[in-house]
Amino acid sequence: MQLRPAGITINGPNPWDIQVHDPRLFWRVMRSGSLGLGEAYMDHWWDCEALDEFFERILRAKVNTGWKSQMWEAGLAMRHALTNMQSIAKSGIVGKRHYDVGNDLFERMLDPSMMYSCAYYGRGATNLNDAQKDKLRLICEKLRLTRGMRALDIGCGWGGFAKFAAENYGVETVGLTISEEQAVLARERCKGLPVTILLKDYRELPGELGPFDRIVSIGMFEHVGPKNYRTYMEIAAKFLKERGLFLLHTIGGHETFDPWFNKYIFPGGVLPAREQIESAIEGFFHIWDWHNFGKDYDPTLLAWYANFERAWPKLKDKYGERFFRMWRYYLLSMAGGFRAEKVHLWQILLAKQPVRRNYVPVRYW
Questions:
Q1: Can you say whether residue 225 is alpha, beta or left, with left for phi > 0 and alpha for psi between -120 and 50 degrees?
Q2: What is the DSSP string of 94-133?
Q3: How many CB atoms lie within 10 A of CB 27?
Q4: What is the pTM of this model?
Q5: Of 37, 60, 5, 47, whose CA–CA distance to 339 is shortest?
Q6: What is the pLDDT of residues 70-120, one digit of tens each?
Q7: CA distance 170 to 221
């Protein structure tokens, strides 16, 4: 791994320089690439004060972590190409491995709305809470929600959108999640509201529940996988009324595979490329609007990390030091990735009908 092009010095004085505690680090990175780099950090073989800036620098400089890292990534890509890594049988793995980690962790890390997706700072918000409210309001405005509508939330998380739409727009929502912990807390948070939370994969949704006036999917498409994109869009089209609207909120890239993230954070996760989304919707939907605000994921992730670090004294006995380092690496490496603009955040407004001549896009600011 050549760090000089990124302006990073081993054991240097800058906050983005890495401090090596175990010289075996270099062989580990040569042998296992980005997986070895992440695991070595979890094992306390190296440190970095500004981990987010470290990753921003190496990503901007296109630093290669080694030929074996490329082999790992190629191997993951081949597995996704040859097998369905996000089948119904396998889809529950990410629920158990990530979203079921513990509601106590997510309640302390996230904002009060419990939104685990990019906040929106484009309307002047200066803190995470307001930025998440603005994101929810922006989604509702794009969907033109009105009282009495029925919405489907594919990948509803802890019920943040469903709760907001019910309280502010009088909308009835059916939410889907594959996480048992999310379902329990979402039902509790939405108690007394016209919200139904189902513990189901999107491919298991009973037909009698549809059709819906609106469909929304916020931060879930990253778990769908290339082999299922057409199926996903076909199901969304089936459950959407002819004059309905569908908003897809997703991280986007170029079918990115990272061995460390795949093993420790999001098993089976794949970032869709723009052309894959366009191909998947062909024949099902027309694109009404495509909004990219990936720059807002950097402050979102930093706010999550600040909350996590502040809450750690109450969490450490349950989760342990290795988990802390793993979670720190996850949040701050992602922040660096978005700051380096290697990945994006897209909100895509879709409809079965072509764009109307009198359609006026929602103002983003």
A1: left
A2: HIIIIITS-HHHHHHHS-TT---S----TT---SHHHHHH
A3: 10
A4: 0.92
A5: 60
A6: 444 444 444 445 455 555 655 567 667 788 899 999 999 999 999 999 999
A7: 26
Alpha-carbon distance of 81 to 71, in angstroms, equals 15
Location of each CATH 3.40.50.150 domain in the chain: 90-325+336-351
253-293: per-residue pLDDT in tens?
875 668 899 899 998 888 999 999 999 999 999 999 999 99
Buried-exposed string 279-299: b where 16+ CB fall within 10 A, e elsewhere: ebbeebbeebbebebbebbbb
The answer regarding whether domain 90-325+336-351 maps to CATH 3.30.300.20 reads: no
pLDDT of residue 93: 72
CA distance 261 to 118: 18
State the pLDDT at residue 84. 55
Please state the separation of Cα 127 from the chain's center in Å. 19
Distance CA(44)–CA(4), nearest Å, equals 23
Kind and range of the H or E element at 53?
Answer: helix 51-60
